[in-house]
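User: Let's play a game. I give you a shape written as C-alpha cells, and you guess the letters that built it. Ready? Here's round one.
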C-alpha cells in the first residue's frame, strides 16, 4: 500500500466546539446581559448623535493572561463610573495576532504558549473571561477581531466598522452572521472561502 503523503504534517484532528455549544457551556447571565445591553444602547446613541458623550474604547493591545485582564478591568471600572456623565468607556479586548508571522499568535490560537494551538481551549478561556468581566465588574467589552470564526464563537452582536464609522450592526444567530454592507459581505466571503481572489 503506498504511503499517504497528503497528511504527513498532521498529528491529530480535533474538531472545535460549535459556537452555539460554546455559548451554552458558558452562558451569559442576566447581570452580564444587562451590562452589555446598557453599553450597547449607549454606544448606539453616541454613534448616531443622540448622546453628547464621547465613546472611548480603551485597553491593552492583546490579552493572554486572564488575571491581568481582570486587574485591568478592575482599574477601569472606577474611572468608567466617575466619568460616566462625559464618557462611555468600554474595554478593548484583542485575543489574537493573526498577522504575526513569528512569535505569539494570541490567547485563542495558542493558550498554552507552547505551539500546541489548542484553539478550543483558547475559545473557552476567552468566552469565560468576557463573561466574568461583564458580570463581576460591570465593564463592557469591545472585541476587536479580523476573524469571523471568533465572532461566531464569542459574540451575540457584531458591528462592522471602517475608518471609525459603523457600516452596519447585526445580531448573531448560532453560526449565522448576516451582513449586507460590501465590507461585511467581504468578511463573510473571506471566512468561508479564505483562498479565493477578491474580484
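Assistant: Ready! My guess for every position:
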Amino acid at each position: 500500500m503506498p504511503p499517504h503523503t497528503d497528511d504527513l504534517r498532521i498529528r491529530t484532528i480535533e474538531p472545535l466546539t460549535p459556537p452555539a455549544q460554546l455559548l451554552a457551556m458558558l452562558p451569559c447571565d442576566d447581570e452580564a446581559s444587562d451590562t452589555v445591553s446598557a453599553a450597547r444602547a449607549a454606544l448606539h446613541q453616541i454613534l448616531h448623535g443622540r448622546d453628547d458623550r464621547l465613546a472611548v474604547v480603551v485597553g491593552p493591545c492583546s490579552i493572554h493572561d486572564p488575571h491581568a485582564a481582570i486587574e485591568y478591568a478592575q482599574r477601569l471600572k472606577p474611572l468608567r463610573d466617575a466619568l460616566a456623565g462625559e464618557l462611555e468607556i468600554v474595554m478593548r479586548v484583542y485575543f489574537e495576532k493573526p498577522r504575526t508571522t513569528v512569535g505569539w499568535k494570541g490567547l485563542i490560537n495558542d493558550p498554552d504558549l507552547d505551539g500546541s494551538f489548542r484553539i478550543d481551549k483558547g475559545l473557552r478561556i476567552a468566552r469565560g473571561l468576557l463573561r466574568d468581566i461583564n458580570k463581576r465588574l460591570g465593564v463592557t467589552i469591545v472585541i476587536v477581531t479580523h476573524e469571523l470564526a471568533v465572532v461566531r464563537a464569542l459574540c451575540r452582536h457584531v458591528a462592522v466598522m471602517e475608518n471609525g464609522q459603523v457600516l452596519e450592526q447585526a445580531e448573531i444567530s448560532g453560526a449565522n452572521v448576516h451582513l449586507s454592507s460590501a465590507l461585511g459581505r467581504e468578511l463573510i466571503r473571506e471566512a468561508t472561502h479564505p483562498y479565493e481572489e477578491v474580484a
